[in-house]
Design brief:
three-stranded antiparallel beta sheet; single chain; two-stranded antiparallel sheet; alpha+beta; 104 residues; 26% strand; 42% helix; HU Protein, Chain A
Length: 104
């Protein structure tokens, strides 16, 4: 799926793989993948969860304001309240990843 020697799978790699598996052109496949990503992003922006059965759940968590420290300077910085996207893998995904990596 990814380039030889690379440990990162890019969006282009996903487009190539899905295009080969479905028979869609790369342009059509990229449109579909962009649509999926935009749908997930839009749902998160509206504070909605996205559940992909067998894969995982995307959500948004509120982080309270807090004091933190800049590790480079030691200076105290104040982090405002913020919202961060989260991902919780499904049990099936965790099981499959664990199985694949322990068999290598």
């Amino acid at each position: 799926m990814s380039k030889i020697g690379s440990k990162t799978v890019t969006k282009a790699d996903i487009v190539d793989r899905v295009s080969n598996a479905t028979g869609l052109t790369k342009v059509e496949t990229e449109i579909v993948i962009n649509g999926i990503m935009n749908t997930i992003t839009s749902a998160l922006e509206n504070n909605r969860r996205v559940e992909l059965r067998g894969f995982g759940t995307f959500g948004v968590k509120k982080r309270d304001p807090r004091k933190a420290r800049n590790p480079g300077t030691g200076e105290t910085v104040y982090l405002p309240e913020r919202y961060v996207p989260t991902f919780k893998p499904s049990g099936l995904l965790r099981k499959n990843v664990n199985k694949a990596l322990t068999e290598k």
